[in-house]
Automatic annotation (TrEMBL):
Gene Ontology MF term list: anti-sigma factor antagonist activity
Domain STAS: 11-103
Organism, scientific name: Halanaerobium salsuginis
Protein name: Anti-sigma B factor antagonist
InterPro entries for the chain: STAS_dom, STAS_dom_sf
Domain of life: Bacteria
Gene3D superfamilies, per the entry: STAS domain
SUPFAM superfamilies referenced in this protein's UniProt entry, alphabetically: SpoIIaa-like
Length: 103
């Protein structure tokens, strides 16, 4: 998985992983996300336009990160979920009730 980031302004960053998010790489995504949270960013957007699958470890990392963002009065947004199986999984587990998901 490749991760690109784009800082929009002092409080907002877009993180764009590419490929699959699974047990072999979800820790590196978590570390990247936490580094921005610890640096003071309070709106973190994850662009899923290049993500083609995510497993339970990836979902777990997203939920853990959402909890930490919320504790710091921040906002986590997932946008551009292109893969239909990922969209279906997010809907099935009601992820949109916990994390803001924009398409």
């Amino acid at each position: 998985m490749e991760i690109k980031t784009k800082v929009r302004d002092l409080g907002q960053v877009v993180v764009s992983p590419a490929g699959g998010i699974d047990s072999s790489n979800s820790q590196s995504l978590k570390a990247e996300l936490f580094s921005f949270l610890e640096a003071g960013y309070r709106k973190i957007i994850i662009d899923f336009s290049q993500v083609n699958n995510i497993d339970s470890s990836g979902l777990g990392r997203l939920l853990l990160f959402q909890k930490r963002v919320q504790e710091k009065n921040g906002v986590l947004v997932i946008k551009n979920v292109k893969d239909s199986s990922i969209r279906a999984m997010f809907k099935l587990i009601h992820l949109d009730k916990v994390i803001q998901i924009n398409n």
